[in-house]
User: Which sequence fits this backbone?
């Protein structure tokens, strides 16, 4: 397999070189770059403005001005990118990402995942619980421009229950390695509070995946958790007693786990839930809901027939997604129409809780949790934006969740998440108006399903001032998928 992977790596290097030659701007670092004639969405919730020229210098936004005001700049011999007819947004921040190198025993070499993220406008990822040494290495390589990849914030995972001595050893070692934060999950109350205390001492923010334990959102409030991931723990904190599980409930059985998760929100006491939301807002706990990762539970047919799977689904992911008790989240061997109905109702209560949380001043961020439950990297993120809109948020608020809010939670609110002078030049250039239709963010070979071939698709993603041509990266991904299917003798299911 190692020899095969070397051959694949050589093929991808050759492919990347060929594709880069197709466009002189793709993956080219310039001391200065002028993005011209752009309609600009700053990211703070205000409407688009422009057309403006965006002058990028040394990876930062140096100036934003109307064309008539910058004739001198336009006449300088600097590289220009014509953004006529496009909307320019801040680079998206994926707050729930998992870097993966193998699925279902099949190697999945980068840059497959990195290209999909960048082609979807994601310039920054918060990696929650992947291989720490590897992601720290890739974080540096990305920062140095040695690989084509989003910016990375590394949050290694501490899962399950541990003694205080074990927690001290783990967190001390992570701190020495230079991680950016920690992810906690499936901890009982005692372990969670001990771990949170140590994280606070080391000034490490915490993303908490709450499960069905004896801790809930009230513990996050007490501990000052940075973000609650998904949604477990919030309705749990508003129950009258415990959830009404059947006698044969087995939480270790994922079919049971996800089935009865679909009944949880309806059992929450709405008065108590309001108090929980108040407490979260007052404590400054942000919410990263990852709405998309549960969508298969309410509409399995939609999930398994995603139009991007044919060209972009790696065979390792395809195999991993098939119902299998050994693959986390692949629990659909006994899913029923009744389960989907419960989940549809679950979403409506969840949506309202998110709106109420935001109305009270709570911070909502955006993450995808791709690589599980039929969600593909990048594509899952773009669908997450649509689900925020379905939850009742204006598209400008949706974009704020994905940019300004997420940057603030990362502690990068002064440098990332806005199209503003002095900020890092992370931009998404879209052929179409996302405020009118978020589906224009889909690649153009997906968007024509709605009939309009003249618009749609992220054209460019700019990270640290370096432009990456999204169609070029997507073409490379399609070739990677073809090569891996051939190598592993796997054909896509629809074929």
Assistant:
């Amino acid at each position: 397999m190692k020899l095969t992977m070397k051959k694949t790596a050589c093929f991808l290097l050759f492919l990347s070189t060929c594709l880069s030659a197709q466009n002189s701007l793709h993956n080219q670092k310039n001391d200065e770059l002028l993005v011209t004639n752009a309609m600009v969405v700053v990211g703070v919730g205000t409407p688009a403005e422009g057309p403006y020229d965006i002058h990028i210098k040394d990876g930062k936004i140096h100036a934003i001005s109307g064309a008539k005001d910058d004739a001198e700049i336009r006449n300088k011999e600097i590289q220009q990118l014509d953004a006529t007819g496009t909307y320019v947004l801040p680079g998206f921040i994926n707050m729930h990402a998992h870097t993966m190198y193998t699925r279902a025993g099949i190697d999945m070499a980068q840059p497959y995942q990195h290209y999909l993220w960048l082609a979807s406008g994601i310039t920054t990822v918060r990696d929650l619980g992947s291989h720490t040494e590897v992601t720290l290495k890739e974080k540096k390589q990305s920062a140095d421009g040695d690989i084509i990849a989003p910016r990375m914030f590394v949050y290694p995972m501490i899962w399950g229950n541990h003694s205080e001595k074990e927690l001290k050893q783990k967190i001390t070692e992570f701190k020495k390695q230079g991680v950016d934060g920690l992810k906690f999950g499936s901890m009982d109350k005692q372990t969670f509070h001990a771990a949170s205390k140590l994280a606070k001492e080391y000034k490490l923010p915490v993303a908490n995946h709450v499960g069905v334990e004896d801790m809930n959102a009230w513990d996050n409030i007490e501990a000052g958790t940075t973000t609650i991931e998904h949604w477990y723990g919030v309705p749990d904190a508003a129950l009258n007693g415990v959830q009404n599980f059947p006698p044969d409930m087995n939480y270790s059985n994922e079919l049971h786990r996800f089935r009865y998760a679909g009944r949880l929100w309806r059992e929450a006491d709405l008065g108590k839930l309001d108090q929980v939301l108040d407490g979260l807002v007052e404590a400054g706990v942000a919410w990263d809901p990852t709405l998309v990762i549960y969508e298969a539970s309410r509409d399995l047919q939609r999930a398994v027939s995603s139009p991007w799977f044919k060209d972009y689904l790696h065979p390792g992911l395809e195999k991993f997604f098939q119902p299998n008790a050994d693959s986390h989240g692949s629990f659909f061997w006994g899913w029923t129409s009744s389960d989907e109905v419960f989940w549809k109702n679950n979403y409506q209560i969840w949506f309202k809780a998110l709106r109420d949380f935001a109305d009270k001043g709570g911070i909502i961020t955006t993450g995808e949790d791709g690589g599980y439950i039929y969600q593909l990297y990048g594509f899952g993120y773009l669908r997450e934006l649509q689900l925020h809109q379905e939850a009742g948020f204006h598209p400008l608020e949706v974009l704020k969740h994905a940019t300004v809010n997420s940057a603030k939670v990362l502690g990068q609110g002064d440098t990332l998440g806005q199209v503003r002078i002095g900020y890092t030049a992370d931009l998404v250039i879209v052929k179409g108006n996302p405020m009118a239709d978020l589906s224009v963010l889909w690649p153009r070979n997906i968007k024509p399903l709605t009939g309009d071939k003249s618009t749609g698709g992220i054209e460019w993603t700019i990270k640290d001032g370096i432009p990456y041509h999204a169609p070029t990266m997507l073409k490379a991904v399609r070739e990677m998928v073809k090569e891996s299917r051939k190598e592993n003798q796997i054909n896509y299911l629809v074929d």
Remarks:
- Residues 92-409 form a domain with the TIM Barrel fold (CATH 3.20.20.140).
